[in-house]
Amino acid sequence: MTLNLLEAVRAEAPDAVVVVVASSELYGPAESLPVEETAPLRPQNPYAVSKASADLLAGYFADAHGMHVIRVRAFNHSGPGQEPRYAIASFARQVAEGVAAGASPVVVHTGNPDARRDYTDVRDVARAYRALAAHGEPGVYNVCSGRTASAAELVAALGRVAGVAVEHRVDPSLRRGHEVMEVRGSYERLRAATGWEPEISLGQTLADTVQWWLGEIRAGRATVRGSGPQS
């Protein structure tokens, strides 16, 4: 898909700015933190390999054809409306389901409680993409917050913003094999190019996500299923 898109732009709109979004997963286990754009690519799963391939293709089109291609390596992002196959959305949905059901404590299932990820609110991420499209020079840019939180910390924080007691249970079936234990990036290059800074705190992201799920449940658009494991 990335190849076809870039070929089409080269043929029909060679002066267009193209923002190709990959994932921080292409870095794999970093040699040092925070990860900068010059770090080697060490993808550790098929998804990460696919993102590394798309990123390298984008770099090839910029180099070989002189196209204005901006390569974004996005770290974890979350916010209202995200599907519950992602960590914060899954945990927030479980909290909202528990609140709606009147549970006390609310049970939240997670995988590895100690894995740490660099989370940015999706609304800040969208601002970064727009800023890069408008002002960024061709090259590679991390989009991240530079701060990390573990699954255990997220669950505790969700309990605080929702005003409920939570019981955190680790489900072995939700643990990932070959997991990278900490992912944290540097957005210094992005800031230098565009002036972008993350504006929305992690606490606000969590609160807004719980409230969004509560609205979906109360409007009948999401079924209360209890606090079982999420995919």
What this model shows, in words?
It contains seven helices and nine strands; from the N terminus they run αβαββαβββαββαβαα. The protein is of the alpha/beta class. The chain has one domain: Rossmann fold (3-Layer(aba) Sandwich), CATH 3.40.50. The strands form four sheets. A three-stranded parallel beta sheet has the order 1-2-7, with helices on both faces. α1 (2-12) runs parallel beside α2, α3 (87-101) runs parallel beside α5 and α3 (87-101) packs across α7. The two termini are 26 Å apart. Mean pLDDT is 93; it is low at 226-231.
Largest sheet: 3 strands, parallel
The count of β-strands is: 9
- Give the topology string: H per helix, E per strand: HEHEEHEEEHEEHEHH
CATH topology: Rossmann fold
Count of all domains: 1
Roughly how many Å is the radius of gyration? 19 Å
| Ends distance | 26 Å
| Tally of contiguous helical segments | 7
Provide the helix percentage.
40-55%
**CATH class annotation:** Alpha Beta
Query: Would you identify the regions where 5 or more consecutive residues have pLDDT less than 50?
Result: 226-231
